[in-house]
């Protein structure tokens, strides 16, 4: 199938690109599955189309409260921020923010200026940063799927509360099968399979088959290495998100 929509169709497409069924591609089924996993992992790590910006909600449990961290889904690869956990002083009529809304922005006395409001908010944020430091410090451990919020949990967090996390998560190719048809993914998997094919044939290097045919696994292997280097360079220069994308 010219447009793969599953793992098997992707594998068949790449094997045909290597010459199957005209040529016998000497790769085991388990090796093919391993290379597909490797290609998908690399694709999700470095291709901007493999992830999506999202908001996830999590309800705090007793275990979360005791551990001082929450467990996030495996597909989340970075955390940008946690939405404000405080009750929000805009709802407190005695707060500075409420009075700004009431008198300056909503124009109770006279129409307010958004420019003046923005400048005032930045000034207030600078004061808060100098006096108290960053309002929220978060630590996200991807391979442990843990998000630690370095605030006083007893003050800002309670059992049953919902925490909203903004971050990036990988797109599941089984749910969105168009991922399997990505041009760069198909090229990368084909190169990985070619490398595996060459690796398998290296042990028979120089062996002459009936009819005078000589296997040259090293040429296949080295050709695959060149393909992989070129494709990975394209990932870095054309398709990868900016370096600070993964900083949370």
Describe the structure.
The protein has 248 residues and is an alpha+beta fold. The chain folds into two domains: 7-47 and 182-246, no CATH class; 56-170, no CATH class. The protein is 45% helix and 16% strand. It is built from eight helices and eight strands. It has helices at residues 7-17, 29-46, 62-67, 96-105, 114-132, 153-156, 183-202, 217-239; strands at 51-59, 70-71, 76-82, 138-141, 146-149, 162-170, 208-209, 213-214. The strands form three sheets. Strands 1-6-3 form a three-stranded antiparallel beta sheet, with no helix packed on it. A three-stranded antiparallel beta sheet has the order 2-5-4. Strand 7 (208-209) and strand 8 (213-214) form a beta hairpin. Helix 1 crosses helix 7, helix 2 (29-46) crosses helix 7 (183-202) and helix 7 (183-202) runs antiparallel to helix 8. It is elongated and about 90 Å long.
């Amino acid at each position: 199938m010219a447009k793969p929509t599953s793992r098997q169709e992707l594998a068949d497409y790449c094997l045909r690109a290597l010459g199957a069924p005209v040529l016998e591609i000497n790769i085991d089924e388990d090796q093919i599955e391993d290379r597909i996993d490797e290609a998908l992992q690399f694709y999700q790590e470095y291709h901007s189309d493999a992830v999506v910006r999202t908001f996830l909600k999590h309800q705090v449990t007793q275990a979360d409260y005791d551990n001082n961290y929450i467990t996030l889904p495996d597909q989340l690869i970075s955390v940008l921020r946690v939405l404000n956990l405080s009750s929000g002083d805009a709802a407190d009529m005695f707060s500075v923010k409420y009075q700004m809304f009431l008198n300056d922005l909503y124009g109770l006395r006279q129409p307010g200026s958004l420019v003046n409001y923005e400048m005032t908010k930045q000034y207030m944020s600078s004061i808060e940063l100098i006096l108290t430091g960053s309002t929220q410090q978060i630590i996200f451990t991807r391979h442990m799927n843990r998000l630690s919020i370095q605030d006083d949990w007893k003050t800002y967090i309670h059992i049953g509360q919902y925490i909203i996390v903004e971050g990036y998560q990988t797109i599941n190719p089984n749910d969105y099968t168009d991922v399997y048809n990505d041009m760069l993914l198909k090229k990368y998997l084909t190169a990985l399979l070619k490398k595996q094919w060459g690796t398998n044939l290296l042990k028979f290097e120089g062996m002459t088959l009936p009819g005078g045919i000589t296997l040259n696994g090293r040429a296949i292997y080295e050709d695959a290495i060149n393909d992989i280097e070129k494709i990975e360079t394209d990932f870095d220069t054309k398709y990868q998100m900016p370096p600070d994308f993964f900083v949370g």
